[in-house]
Design brief:
The chain has 297 residues and is of the alpha+beta class. It folds into two domains: 167 residues, Sandwich (Jelly Rolls); 110 residues, Orthogonal Bundle (Arc Repressor Mutant, subunit A), CATH 1.10.10.60. The chain contains ten helices and nine strands. Strands 1, 2, 3, 4, 5, 6, 7, 8 and 9 form a nine-stranded antiparallel sheet that branches. Strand 2 and strand 3 form a beta hairpin.
């Protein structure tokens, strides 16, 4: 699925000076804006994805763009190249006291894609922690190069932008810092809530075919990352878990009712009795008929 940034905003006193320039890479979308802000200009923004706001250039005022999480005014560093990291769903307000022209870069991060690329669950922790109005020369250098890829006439190969955005993201979240040499990165996993949501869904729908994308969507993860995370949490792939749940349903039907195997196969979602028998024998080592004789005397 193609990543599209999802943001709602309202602005007052802010005018776009040049057309928006943007690029899309694997899990990141970069926007370069050049705007004129009148005295008293303001804005309100809410994004469904985490993002980084970087001031590239500022002209015409001693004051600067003030960002806050509650709409209040506060002191702001009067220094070039300030930046702010805003988590997903966090409302942010901007205010400008004096007329100023600002050129800035917005980077929108798609957490499921970046989780898969890095092999780490980024659903919480650092990705949920705001950092407003900070300075970081290394991140700014990467931001400049990314902005050049959006606006320059000669673009590099997409892998160049992929590398820049991933390096910036790793630096921004300080991923991997402090891990001893030779220690493996954390394995993909699911939270207890995510795992329960998936297993409950499988229990409720065990008699039909369940697609991997249905389970991944329940967790907000990509199919590949979800599959690895589910196996790490349960010890088996999702389809094997599903089959075990389906066969427990078969065992309940075998024990509770004197139903013919053809009917049980149909109720449990198997194509026919032969399909049921093969699956049952593979997981239990016995046929349905033999299991019924041994357990339903």
């Amino acid at each position: 699925m193609t990543f599209q940034p999802r943001m709602t905003s309202s602005v007052e006193g802010i005018t776009l000076l040049d057309k928006l320039r943007w690029r899309r890479w694997n899990g990141v979308i970069a926007d370069v804006w050049h705007v004129a802000c009148a005295a008293g200009a303001r804005g309100h923004y809410v994004s469904q994805d985490a993002r980084l706001f970087v001031v590239l250039e500022r002209e015409g005022a001693r004051s600067d763009v003030q960002l806050s999480a509650d709409g209040s005014s506060g002191k702001v560093q009067r220094a070039p190249h300030r930046m702010s990291f805003v988590p997903a769903e966090m409302p942010i307000w901007s205010r400008i006291d004096e007329p100023v022209r600002v050129r800035h870069l917005d980077l929108h991060f798609h957490a499921p894609t970046l989780s898969e690329r890095l092999g780490e669950d980024l659903a919480g922790g650092r990705l949920a922690t705001p950092r407003l109005d900070f300075l970081d020369p290394r991140i700014f250098t990467l931001a400049q190069l990314i902005a050049d890829e959006c606006t320059g006439p000669d673009r590099h190969h997409d892998l160049y932008g992929d590398g820049l955005t991933l390096a910036l993201f790793i630096d921004l979240l300080q991923l991997g810092r402090g891990r001893p040499a030779g220690e493996a990165a954390p394995r993909a996993t699911l939270s207890a809530r995510q795992l329960k949501r998936v297993t409950d869904f499988i229990e409720a729908n065990c008699t039909r075919n369940i697609r991997l994308h249905e389970l991944a969507e329940l967790t907000g993860l990509s199919q590949s990352y979800f599959s690895h995370a589910f196996k790490a949490a349960t010890g088996v792939p999702p389809h094997q878990w599903h089959m075990k749940v389906r066969l427990r349903k078969v065992q309940d039907l075998l024990a509770a009712r004197d139903l013919p195997l053809t009917q049980i196969a149909s109720v449990a979602g198997f194509t026919d009795q032969a399909h049921l028998t093969r699956a049952f024998r593979r997981l239990t080592g016995s046929t349905p008929a033999a299991w019924r004789r041994a357990h339903c005397r």
